[in-house]
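Here is a typical protein record:
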Amino acid sequence: MVRVVGIDPGTKTMDLCLLEDGVVKSEVVLESSEVAFKPELLVKAVEKLSPYDLIVGPSGYGVEVTYIDEIPDDVFEDWYYTYILLTTKEEIERGVAEGDVGSYIYYAMAKTMIEFKKRRLPVVFIPGIINLPTVQGFKKLNKIDLGTADKLAVAVLATHLQAERLRIPYGEVSFILSELGFGYNAVVGVSKGLIMDAFGGTTMPGPGFLSMGCADLELVQLVRNWSKTDVFTGGLSYVSGCRTPEELAECSTTRPECLELLNAMVDGIMKAVHALTYSVGVPKEVLYSGRLSRINLIRNLLISSIKDSAVLGSVRVAPVGSLPGAKITKETAQGYALVGDGVAGGFFRGLINHMRVAEAKGSALDYVKHPKFDKRKLVRFK
């Protein structure tokens, strides 16, 4: 019997999912903004779920399967900020001081993992999509975000659930997944049960709720000075002035400009979905998950756009679904636990082996070839 805790570091909430032999046994949901200033909340929540064989820690942009005790104590904090969060402690502390919502979650992730390290808890960090050998190398050139670790996790969950639902082997699983989170969106293409290609939150052709998505290089040149907090801004929240996606959906019934913003987001999602048919063909299903997909207006806009598509109009559209026993945790948290279970040799070992997750290599920074990117400044531990 393998017991694994998955921790999903959502921009709005941190979800904990305890998985035992493929069944969800316990769930906890914490506000990320509270954990940022009281990391002991997450520590205590995890300790209450004991005993466990493995904890899948918040893995940000992803690294090859890496156990926390592999990283020396004296470089762990710098390593985590550099490779998991792609930033610095100073930048995140500055963002927190300025009240930036996105910085809260990064701060919470770092603080809690430092505490876990001190307590010698059995933590593992998992890959992002760019680390997978199933994504061809040329698709990674000068890319960092092809889907963070949580997007990989929900795609793995979706692979298992489609196989179960359609009663097919993993090798016949085929879908394109739209993961619509509070901060970022992502679209992932799966064929033959393998993640083949994806758009991450900062490479999406349209905006998310917090993030602006892919930035025009002319805009990058004009602004010149950027910071990590800019990754979390410029999306629908900033343009509309709405603090939550629910508020934006409600405002769209009386403010035409708000509906235009939602259409801009759906347009970007649809462009990404259609682009991935080049990599994976027309899928068996188009799936959706994430907080925004549970808002009726946003979900209906997405579904109607798929149904109006000449390419995808006849394809089944459905939610990802949940593991047995799950009631309150997001799909990403369940996916984190599922990946950890497979890595630990549990119920989902065959799925993780099929999807080649343990064969992932390196970090999200390995494919940047721009002359102004100085790798000599990166923290080294091997």
Summary: The chain has two domains: 3-128+364-377, 136-323. The chain has a mean pLDDT of 94. The first strand starts at residue 3 and ends at 9.
